[in-house]
Amino acid sequence: MIYYIMKKASIRFYDNQKDIIHQFKHNLKLVDSIQVSNNSNQDIMNGNNKNYLYTQKFLKKHPNNSFAQYLFSIKNRENSASIGFSYNDALELSRWANLPIHNKVVIFDWDGTLSVIEGILLPRTKEETNTHEMNKITYEDIATYYCGGKYRFTWLRDLFIYLHKKHVSVYILTNNPIACNVEKEGRKHFFRVIKEIIPQIKLKEILCGYESNGFKPHAFMKNKELKKSYTESER
Predict the structure, then answer these.
(1) Is the pLDDT of residue 94 over 70?
(2) What CATH number does the domain containing 114 carry?
(3) pLDDT tens digit string along 54-69?
(4) What is the pLDDT of residues 174-227, one digit of tens each?
(5) Is residue 88 assigned to a domain?
(6) Residues 90, 63, 115, 222: is their CA dihedral positive or negative?
(7) Does residue 222 lie in a domain region?
(8) Which residues contact 232 (CB under 8 A, 6 or more apart)?
(9) Rg, Å, the chain Cα set
(10) Residue 53 located in a structural domain
(11) Which of 204, 211, 206 is CA-nearest to residue 182?
């Protein structure tokens, strides 16, 4: 009797948008491209956050969050996607991290995947940075806000610490323009926010599809390390 063992992909990519997943499935077939559910995510404020009152609802649960306090003071009307990478997704990814696969890589979208918000409000000028500093806004509070609360922020960070121990390389690949290399001030702050969630990440591991006209596979292949990992997975 002959047993056939299916080869597991060494590269995973998570995104909430169907068209982006299609880009990967069509152009980078060896990447395991996974669309996170667009159903209401109960990990995010008990699923009760899909409206423009997200900031107010968040403050009721986290009244001491410096970033949410600032957003409320400027009358920010944030829309929450109420979706994102879930705890069950994290459990499944942890199991994958334990498999005997060489050079494991996982790539995450930001908006609507790690973050529960489409878009991110961060300083893009020195003056805006000064405003944040005057309001004593912390990067952890910003990360907690965009993760949907302390509970989800904590298990996401625990997940990425675990992935690091399992020698899984982690990247962010977003179409959010604040991650572009030309956005010196904004990219710096974005990196600091991401680092609260993914402590071991390096700035060079934050990639921006906006620089490739929204075509994320191109941004993927422009990265030498990811291109090398993909080429090795073909063998």
Answers:
(1) yes
(2) 3.40.50
(3) 888 889 999 999 999 9
(4) 999 999 999 999 999 999 999 999 999 999 999 999 999 999 999 999 999 999
(5) yes
(6) negative
(7) yes
(8) 10, 102, 103
(9) 18
(10) no
(11) 211
Say if residues 162 and 94 touch (Cβ distance below 8 Å).
yes
Please report whether residue 75 resides in a domain. Answer: no
Domain, as residue range, for 181: 11-48+83-119+148-233
Domains held by the chain: number:
1
